[in-house]
Amino acid sequence: MALVGASYSINAEPFKAGGAPGTQTIDGYNALGPQVEQPIEFPHYTHANVMKINCMYCHTYARRSAVSGIPRLDKCIGCHKMIPEVRDRPRIKKLFWYWDNHKSIPWKKVHDLPDFVRFNHERHIQRFYFQDKRPVREVCGYCHGDVANMTTARRVKAISMGWCIDCHKKDHQISAVNLKTTNGPNDCWMCHK
């Protein structure tokens, strides 16, 4: 059991990667996903770690829908128009190429689930970030790992049915002031279509 933040004790390690590609986690699930080559090598490290931008600033749908979403190009341009000192960098040149040519960036999925599975970002973000007031990097990190220390995102958690069930079986403290614990639902139809 690890102490996270000033007031929570939990038994999950959000920033611990699953293991090397092709290996399995200690609980038997596939560890790392493949390295997905993106059209622009997006530096999560610069945005989320150095600039301290909240994950939900760019993945704005995570707090209100099933999917987290990828920001529209005009959102990226809105910020980068204000930062002329990085305009000549290769990544930013590519970004503006898409903008100038009226093309969307063909990002590729990194955390793709089978079509018969539904995962609801909103429920998890509302519970652990807004209700429990846990740090956003910790909340997102449970499933996505320490993305703020990555360049392009890579799946580092198993994100399999057994992996999700294991987390739902864990005792999650109800709130910072309520030491009682609760578990996630285990009804098949909550996650399967």
How would you characterize the overall build of this protein?
17% of the residues are buried. This protein is mostly helical. The model is unreliable at 1-12 (pLDDT under 50). A two-stranded antiparallel ribbon has the order 1-2. It is built from eight helices and four strands; from the N terminus they run E-E-H-H-H-H-H-H-H-E-E-H.
Q: Secondary-structure element order, as H and E?
A: EEHHHHHHHEEH
Mean pLDDT score: 84
Helix content: 25-40%
Distance between the termini: 34 Å
Multimeric status of the protein:
single chain
Instruction: List the uncertain runs.
Output: 1-12
Beta strand % = 5-15%
Radius of gyration: 18 Å
The biggest sheet, with number of strands, parallel, antiparallel or mixed sense and barrel status, is: 2 strands, antiparallel
Task: Supply the number of helical segments.
Answer: 8
Taken from the alpha-carbon principal axes, the silhouette is globular
> Spatial order of the strands in the main sheet?
1-2
How many β-strand runs? Answer: 4
The helix-and-strand class reads: mainly alpha
